[in-house]
Design goal:
about 150 residues; 6 helices; mainly alpha
Length: about 150
């Protein structure tokens, strides 16, 4: 099960699961007036800018890793590995790291440029905390995939 989730190629499904999980988490937080992850009130802009920077660096390393794997595909060693799923697993892990990093980057960027939705106050609160949960969980999953790609 873990291997299928880790190495599975269906990225849309993984992103939908994370977004759905964050939505359920935010519904629980909103209903019980409790926050699992405390939204930063002080230095909010710096907090999101730091997350944006970390994600950019990790995604850049992942892209470099993917580029290196792509550039050595004509090598004899890679030719021997073509019949196996080793390259597919490595590429999938790297791609997942990049995609979840990009998701967190987009949410962080929305916070940094102060995208504002003019809705009722409690709806804005819900959306802001939901986006924060997506930002944090995407960052964590991106880091996990990055570490797995380094290990592999």
């Amino acid at each position: 099960m873990v291997s299928r989730m880790l190495y599975g190629k269906n990225i849309k499904r993984k992103v939908i699961i994370i977004i759905f999980f964050c939505f359920i988490l935010e519904c629980i937080e909103y209903r019980f007036n409790y926050q699992f992850f405390v939204y930063p009130q002080d230095e909010e802009l710096n907090y999101h800018a730091t997350i944006l920077t970390v994600n950019s660096i990790l995604s850049g390393f992942s892209l470099t890793n993917l580029g290196i794997l792509m550039s050595i595909s004509a090598d004899q060693l890679i030719e021997k590995l073509k019949g196996t799923d080793i390259l597919l697993k490595r590429n999938t892990v790297i791609l997942n790291s990049i995609i979840f990093g990009a998701l967190s980057i987009f949410v962080s960027l929305a916070f940094v440029v102060r995208v504002d939705i003019n809705l009722k106050e409690h709806v804005n609160y819900f959306i802001k905390n939901f986006a924060f949960n997506v930002e944090i969980f995407s960052l964590v999953i991106s880091i996990i995939y990055f570490l797995v790609s380094i290990k592999k």
